[in-house]
From TrEMBL:
Organism: Achromobacter insolitus
One GO term of the biological process aspect: D-alanine catabolic process
Gene Ontology CC terms, in alphabetical order: cytoplasm; plasma membrane
Name of the protein described by the UniProt record: D-amino acid dehydrogenase 1
Family to which the UniProt record says this protein belongs: Belongs to the DadA oxidoreductase family.
GO molecular function, one term: D-amino-acid dehydrogenase activity
Gene3D superfamilies: D-Amino Acid Oxidase, subunit A, domain 2, FAD/NAD(P)-binding domain
Amino acid sequence: MKILVLGAGVVGISTAYYLTRAGHEVDVVERHPGAAMETSFGNAGGLCPSFAAPWAAPGMPIKVLKMALKADAPVRYSLWPELARLRWTRLWLKECNAPRFRVNKLRMQRVAHYSLACLRELMAETGIAFDFHADGVLQLFQTKAECQYGDIAASALKEFGIAHHRLDRHGAIAVEPALRDATINIEGALHLPSDASGDSHLFCQAMTAWLRNAGVRFHFGTEVRRLLKEGGRVVGAETSAGALKAEATVVAMGNQAPALVAPLGIKLPVYPLKGFSITVPVIDGEQAPNMSVMDEHNKIMVSRLGNRIRAAGMAELVGHDLSLDPGRKAVLVRAVRNMFPNGLDYENAKFWAGLRPMTPDGPPILGLSGWDGLFLNSGHGSNGWTQACGTSRVVADLVCGRKPAIDLEGLTIGRFS
């Protein structure tokens, strides 16, 4: 088949890989001049299936309201009226309770662990390099309330059979010695040894070269204007470079996906959740962190990417605004410096902002769209890098008419019907 993949972030690139591997003729369309220039460019770098969890959690609405009163709060919610945000928030509020958190986390765990296994297979087949480290993740808690949240997460991990260890301060420092000089209070921690990290932008660049050699055609600098349909079937897309016809079309456009599919009557409940990151050079490897560390108090994840560390976090529901607020950079630098005061060149930190395409309940939206020939790989939120290979393999299986290796319960658009 001739297949059109719309979007060349980590999800679109991974989709193209699995479709090419299945023997199909693949074209990838991307509005930017290269792959992974938006959300996949400067994310935290964590490949964290054990840590994968919905933003919709017990107590989050109250926490968000309290944070809204603080200038440097990790979460911000714009009060400017916007219908899409209000609709998304209404759905999100229904998911912010313990029973729904458990259901949604287990759904995310299912696809995320499958995805890391898929990524390891991809690495073995392609031989690409992208600063991959399999060192696990350490989730830090600064308060007793955060430790209680950790207990809820640990309970879900136990139910799903995922390796994890609850630690005190001394145990956390033993796992990541670079925390020995931390100035923050470490009330406890959750160690997730099976998780990893890597640079998704480097991954996409390397995979673009690999896919080109495999015959994939890339249409960079090309905007998707609308989907083409004939009767009840989607037959391709109208782009700034003309019409591209295909027997199947996969939408992997992140935050642009809802507007693209809306004219077909598809209501995709995906809203951009703005986040920020800094990339900091390592000047002393002995004092810099070697594993991914999640500061639960400030919602900031730190990952080691070769001779750099990437720290990303915070959440702002402010639409598609990508402006860089210097105050947010200061928050990131301060939070990371409090954990790791030595070994990093904070004066030369590079600042970035991106938009995570978030569903209200957490899991992505995969597979059949309701239109023949149109498939969805959307709504990965802050877990796009973690889930990309698994969701893309699932969607490729569906395009090929094969049964996916994992259960799709709770992972399709049907759950919002």
